[in-house]
Each structure stands twice: as C-alpha cells, then as structure tokens.
Design goal:
The protein is of the alpha+beta class. It is 45% helix and 14% strand. Helix 4 packs across helix 5, helix 4 crosses helix 6 and helix 5 crosses helix 6. The longest helix is centred in the last third of the chain and has 62 residues.
Length: 274
C-alpha cells in the first residue's frame, strides 16, 4: 500500500517482527539511483504512524527530509547542499539586463491660447448705484407705541382728554397712579402716543410715574428679602449645631469602641490566669 504523510511518500507492507507480522511504513531514498529503504514501525505495531510523527521518526533514524523527499544518511548531506544552492540568487541573475523598454510616444500639449478680452461698448456700461443700508422701522399697531414723539401737534381737545384720564386715576395724597395704572395703559385706552401722556403727567401731576401696585411690590419684596435673610441665618446656625453634634457622636462612638477592646483584653488575660 502506497501513501503520503503530509507529502512524504511511503508504502506499507507486513513485515516479520518476532513471532508475528506487523505493519511497517517504508520510505525509499529520493536520491537518483539509490534504492535504500527504511522501515518505520508504530509503537502499537498495527497502527500507521501519525503524519506529524513520520518525518520525525525518519530523522531519528539518521535520514533527512528536504521538502517532502526523504534521503538516506549517505545522500542526505549532498541533497541538503543542492537544495541550498538552488535557493541562492547568483550575481548573474541580479545583474541580468532588463528586457528592452517599450517605445512610448511622447505627447507634448499645445500651448494654451490666451483668452481674448473684449471691452464692452461705452453705451453698454452702466454705473451701479450704491446700496443704501436703510433700516425698515417696525410696524406700529397703535399710537401708544410712539414713545418719543413731540407734543407740538397735540390739540387742546386731546390735552383735556388726557388730563381727565390721568386725574381720574391719580392719588394726590401719594403723588402716583392708583392701582396698576400707567402712562402706557392711558395712551392705549385713548389711542394717543405715550409721550403725550407722559408730557402732561409730568407738567401737571409730577415726575413720579409709579402706581400703587409697584409700591406694594416693592414693600412685599423688601419683606421677602428680610424673611429670606432671617431664615438663612437660622439655617446656618442649625447646620453648625448639627455638625457639632455629629462630631460629639463620633467621639463618643470611638470611646465606646476603645472601652470594649480594653474589656476584651482584660477578660482574655483573666481567663488565661485561671
């Protein structure tokens, strides 16, 4: 039976071994004209040697394995030298002249033709008008939004209407508007510019344009700020007291721990004496 173990050729046959016959894997020397053979037996005698062990068994018997070819001890060294020489690149191969190059026609691009600039006729040239960065004013929905308009176009009838409206919502004792009334609300109600209302109010009633609601909010804000300051101070005191209490608790726990450890040591020493 012929076969290969990872490429190493061999043939098998039964050979006598003591009083019985066993399977032997037989390799033949690959040197030209050499017919030397070697018998390799497995340890179990009836099994074929695993592929990973066949080449190793040949080397143990003094044979050489070059590539997939086995060589007997007489031809192994010669075959190794021949193999080494075949893998060496000679100087002739290194300096071997290259094959003739393929003729490639050179291409020289033509010089680009400069562009022809044609000046436009004078009649065609138009002067561009400079852009004017003009801001478009926001749309005005009612006259009360004209806050800075002058009062020189306000007629007498309009002045009286504004005066009566301010007077009906004014607190003379405190010199301010009643409730939540403002210049803007009166201007919106009468559909006149706010500047007109402000002008008449300053001229007749005074410069203070506040109202009762604003004063109440100022008073409430002052009271709230005072309460906040008091609560923050009290909270700070309580936090400090709590931290002090935590420190005391930690010290007390350490004392209890130390006393327990001392008591345990004393009890252990007392029992040892007994």
């Amino acid at each position: 039976m012929n076969g290969r173990i990872r490429g190493i050729p061999f043939h098998s046959r039964l050979v006598p071994y003591g009083d019985k016959k066993v399977v032997a894997q037989i390799a033949t020397c690959s040197a030209p004209g050499c017919k030397t053979e070697i018998e390799i037996h497995s340890s179990k005698m009836t099994k074929v040697i695993p592929p990973s062990m066949f080449g190793e068994k040949l080397r143990q018997k003094g044979w050489s394995v070059i590539g997939i070819k086995p060589y007997c001890p007489e031809h192994g060294l010669t075959a190794k030298r021949t193999e080494d020489r075949s893998n060496v690149i000679t100087a002739e191969e290194v300096f071997k002249p290259l094959p003739p190059a393929i003729n490639v026609y050179e291409y020289t691009p033509a010089e680009p033709t400069p562009p022809v600039v044609v000046a436009p006729a004078k009649s065609v040239i138009k002067k561009e008008k400079p852009e004017m960065n003009m801001k478009v004013p926001a749309p005005i929905h009612d006259l009360s939004q004209l806050g800075e308009i002058t009062t020189n176009i306000m007629d007498a009838a309009t002045k009286r209407r504004i005066y009566r409206e301010i007077d009906g919502n004014w607190d003379d004792s405190k010199g301010r508007y009643l409730a939540n009334m403002t210049d803007h609300l009166i201007a919106t109600k009468l559909m006149v510019p706010r500047a007109w209302v402000e002008e008449i109010r300053k001229e007749v009633f005074g410069d203070d344009g506040s109202n009762a609601e604003i004063e109440e909010l100022h008073a409430d804000l002052a009271s709230a700020e005072k309460r906040f300051t008091e609560i923050a101070a009290e909270a700070s005191r309580r936090v400090d007291a709590a931290l002090e209490m935590v420190a005391k608790l930690e010290n007390c726990r350490n004392e209890v721990k130390d006393m327990r450890q001392r008591l345990e040591r004393i009890e252990v020493a007392t029992k040892a004496r007994r």
